[in-house]
What we know:
alpha+beta; two-stranded antiparallel sheet; globular
Amino acid sequence: xxxxxxxxxxxxxxxxxxxxxxxxxxxxxxxxxxxxxxxxxxxxxxxxxxxxxxxxxxxxxxxxxxxxxxxxxxxxxxxxxxxxxxxxxxxxxxxxxxxxxxxxxxxxxxxxxxxxxxxxxxxxxxxxxxxxxxxxxxxxxxxxxxxxxxxxxxxxxxxxxxxxxxxxxxxxxxxxxxxxxxxxxxxxxxxxxxxxxxxxxxxxxxxxxxxxxxxxxxxxxxxxxxxxxxxxxxxxxxxxxxxxxxxxxxxxxxxxxxxxxxxxxxxxxxxxxxxxxxxxxxxxxxxxxxxxxxxxxxxxxxxxxxxxxxxxxxxxxxxxxxxxxxxxxxxxxxxxxxxxxxxxxxxxxxxxxxxxxxxxxxxxxxxxxxxxxxxxxxxxxxxxxxxxxxxxxxxxxxxxxxxxxxxxxxxxxxxxxxxxxxxxxxxxxxxxxxxxxxxxxxxxxxxxxxxxxxxxxxxxxxxxxxxxxxxxxxxxxxxxxxx
Length: 483
């Protein structure tokens, strides 16, 4: 997966068809992405070993004739093809930010985080495709922008709900959803949006696009109806809806949340939301299904129960229907893994020292595809560990894994000592994907159960770097032998 030839093949598949106006730019793009896949790092100086390669990369990202949207479009077409070939895929829409170095505040970046922290960088919304088995497919679209510094204003003038869509960041969410939807077969894609994207305009846009969707509710919305002048609100109405099923979910210990097996109660109902447009003083009724999954009886004392209120246009008539909606939303967590791998894990794109927003976006987009590739390998090895390793690794890489595993297992404790383990090294020809990734992770520092779970992106990434050198040597030796 990380030999020069396989890295170049990956880069050509995703970016070889980019419309950059010059075939030399396309060739440069493929070589740069191949370099990132082979040796991902946040700084160009760490990615490329020679001054010529570094200079080529700097010239490319700083070339005013190259626009990030053309690179996004090329990668998106490859991911869209994968979605359209599948039965169903999830498209996760989520926002994040890139915290980038700008100590003097002279770069054309914007504010990220709160005013008092003074952090600089870029905001980004990503459409991230995931298979029905929750295996990442890649980035379907991205939107970047520099946020202006917030200013304190009076309550009336700062009411965001009274501004037009194009005046708000809501427009960015709508643009990403529409771009992503325009590239896929509507019957194949199920869009997933977290609470940050819960807005009147988003719900209306998803409905108009005729795609299946799940949106996590962020507001106790007003419903159409009510008697005697009393208003009906979402949570009070859902609390009276019948329980249609239940399930259990393992909750890991994170932050101030205790590990446990949570018992979830599921309710469902079709409701009519009253969506108010404060800007124009109008209201619109929108019928949607609601699935409410809430933890009952298992939250520890003082801890809030798990609580998901989900809007959807998928069927919710049966317990099976409701669980399908809940499972769809669970796939949303794949984008959190992607953000970590992209920003600070495998790729460390936030370490970039580039001086302009345009150059940083081009570099970030290329790295996003590399991060998605690393996440795909991680989750594929977990979901289908018994498939042949040849589906993801070249012959040179499989040979390198087998040779290094054999060497490690046969290292003596001392001169004249015995082998340390009774394990059998994997065979290059029969090696499974699970075996290959496990050995790669071990080379990256994974210690098994004591590491706290299955191999993650960081240890797999370290192991891939280790394997890359050996595979490169084997590939070069094979080429020389053929000559």
